[in-house]
Design goal:
- The chain has 332 residues and is an alpha/beta fold.
- The chain is 32% helix and 22% strand.
- The strands form 4 sheets. Strands 1-7-6-4-5 form a 5-stranded mixed β-sheet, with helices on both faces. A 4-stranded mixed β-sheet has the order 8-13-12-11, sandwiched between helices. A two-stranded antiparallel ribbon has the order 2-3.
- β4, α4 and β5 form a beta-alpha-beta unit.
- α3 crosses α4 and α8 runs parallel beside α9.
């Protein structure tokens, strides 16, 4: 069998501060019922004070390395997926590298938003299959709360997002067919305008003005219905396709770990695939949408909760800004 890779360890960290729908209703024209009906979310975690995604990622990364039975010094590459980097530059991967004391280790940011962890996992898998690295740390970490519009103008987006970090250590597969089987990654830049953050931007001179801020261009913009439509149209075919690509079918799938964008999306995708609740994990109700962190957090919860066992067939899948979408298939 050719050289393959597998996830050796997982880690998660979310802030202690819990923000409920009722908390948001005190500052926005919304209600617990309105938010739950449209998104399935009851609460989310937000940071307090000046905390960036690299700081959130550190405990998740340390936990993942320990779970893999490795030392931090074994990590040769850090892949950091985020849409909320600590700084415009340099990348958050370098900040995390320094926090972990791995100075000199390769470090790279991945800017594929909600599918960032999937793109990172595919990159780690390719590097390991090629023999370039032995152990790669793949992180998804986000701090949304410091960049959300806390006025009624931004309500529909603000209620969705949470902060958090998830991490995975990827290394060579030494246990037969227990490995990452493959990936299916896609993008369509023609859909860039339905989910984006406009300012500051190097394509504008100056990059940020008082007028832009008055217009709210420094807050995320989303056409919710358009994103919803893309997700429910693309994800079922994506998941069927990656299974078929590997000579497998839905009956053989033990668990689907979808990106946690909207509970209604996940429920519709599961229904389209004929998957019962026992074969899909959802935690958006408690954590909101943590974009690049959502899949590793949900996967870690599934493993810790005994919903993933050695030999199980697991599919990770998601869609986000770009638009980008993708899936990874794993024999756990």
């Amino acid at each position: 069998m050719d050289r393959g890779s597998r996830i050796l360890g997982l880690g998660t960290y979310v802030p202690e501060r819990i923000v409920t729908n009722d908390d948001l209703a005190e500052i926005l024209d919304t209600s617990d019922e309105w938010i739950r009906k449209r998104t399935g979310i009851s609460e989310r975690r937000w940071v307090e004070g000046d905390v960036g995604p690299a700081e959130l990622a550190e405990p998740a990364a340390r936990q993942a390395v320990a779970a893999a039975g490795l030392e931090l010094s074994d990590i040769q590459l850090i892949l950091f997926a985020t849409l909320s980097p600590d700084l415009f530059f340099p990348g958050s991967a370098c900040l995390l590298q320094d926090r972990l004391g791995l100075n000199g280790c390769a470090a790279m940011d991945i800017r594929n938003q909600c599918t960032g962890f999937l793109y990172g996992l595919a990159t780690a898998d390719a590097f390991i299959r090629a023999g370039l690295y032995e152990h790669v740390l793949v992180v998804g970490s986000e701090v949304h709360s410091s960049g959300l519009d806390m006025s009624d103008r931004g309500r529909d987006v603000t209620v969705i997002f949470g902060d958090g970090a998830g991490a995975a250590v990827v290394g060579p597969s030494t246990e037969g067919d227990r490995r990452i089987l493959g990936h299916s990654l896609h993008a369509d830049g023609a859909l860039v305008d339905i989910l984006k953050l406009v300012a500051p931007a190097s394509s504008m001179n100056p990059r940020l003005t008082a007028e832009m801020m008055e217009q709210g261009l420094h807050y995320p913009y989303m056409e919710g219905r358009a994103v919803f439509k893309q997700a429910v149209q693309l994800l079922p075919g994506l998941i069927r396709g990656i299974l078929t690509q590997h000579g497998l079918d839905l009956d053989q799938l033990d668990l689907l770990v979808p990106h946690q964008a909207n509970l209604r999306i996940n429920e519709m995708v599961a229904r389209a695939l004929g998957l019962g609740p026992d074969k899909v994990i959802n935690n958006i109700q408690r954590l909101g949408n943590t974009t690049a962190a959502s899949i590793p957090i949900a996967l870690h919860e599934a493993v810790e909760g005994g919903r993933v066992k050695p030999g199980d067939l697991v599919c990770l899948a998601g869609l986000g800004a770009g638009m980008t979408w993708g899936a990874s298939l794993i024999r756990w």
